[in-house]
């Protein structure tokens, strides 16, 4: 198998965390993450300069999301992931389930809409094009659960249990495309569920929770299938280099355990985020009602009291 572009994979020493975290650049992900951080920082500075606030928590979340992608793709983890199923599974889980959540918690689309200048009358600038995309039929389809949930599931079973995975792992380009696919699928799946940025598909909080839990069990089942297998299932990892000192079936069992355990992590993170958003929404609604009551002298309460008085008069 040719792993050109990833260095020499056949003589990697046994995996340790220190060796895995050593720097090993993937230019595409390095440039992409740096540009994402630069544009995000530009947006925050633009808001601050005109006196608008931007939550520090969102800045931290987005930065951690970009750094998590860098950690997976610009270290030796990326090299070891080519020959160790367990390390690859860590990459997959983080890139598809943790990084997207952190990036979305940063509300990058909302930041862009607030930071980009409004084009003149009759003209279309970047902000107007972004708004058109957010309101497009294409995005409505791409973010609908009838599309996102099957896509999320197919990214596991349709990839690993077919020859497609081995085909993609034969080259650096294929591996890169796979990782970009994992990131894109995670963003598309979690975007409507998180509900922080504007978009065409915005169900209620209970429906979002149902969407979340509809996809997560399939990760657990996938992990259990790998752990229960009596022989290596993925051709790419059937014959690990002797220098690693690992056994293919044991490494596959570890990969299955990682997939199974990781299925709980995004569920907890997203559920906490949704509960917090729900709580904040209820607070805002209560404040709006209080302000309305202050303006109209609490006419709703007065009307209710008058209704009770009329009932009392009838009974009398």
Nutshell version of this structure?
The chain is 72% helix and 0% strand.
Give the H and E element order: HHHHHHHHHHHHHHH
Structural class: mainly alpha
Which value, in Å, is the CA radius of gyration? 25 Å
Put simply, the count of helices is 15
Global mean pLDDT: 85
The share of residues in extended strands comes to under 5%
Keywords:
316 residues, mainly alpha, 0% strand, globular, disordered N terminus
Describe this structure in words.
- The chain is mainly α and 316 residues long.
- It has 15 helices and no strands.
- The protein has helices at 17-20, 27-49, 56-73, 77-80, 85-105, 108-115, 126-134, 137-142, 145-160, 164-168, 172-194, 205-228, 248-262, 264-296, 299-315.
- Helix 11 packs antiparallel against helix 12 (205-228).
- The protein is globular and about 90 Å long.
- Residues 1-7 have low confidence and may be disordered.
Q: Which secondary structure elements does this structure contain, and how are they paired or packed?
A:
Elements: H1 17-20, H2 27-49, H3 56-73, H4 77-80, H5 85-105, H6 108-115, H7 126-134, H8 137-142, H9 145-160, H10 164-168, H11 172-194, H12 205-228, H13 248-262, H14 264-296, H15 299-315
Helix pairs in contact: 2-3, 2-6, 3-5, 5-11, 5-13, 5-14, 9-11, 9-12, 11-12, 12-13, 12-14
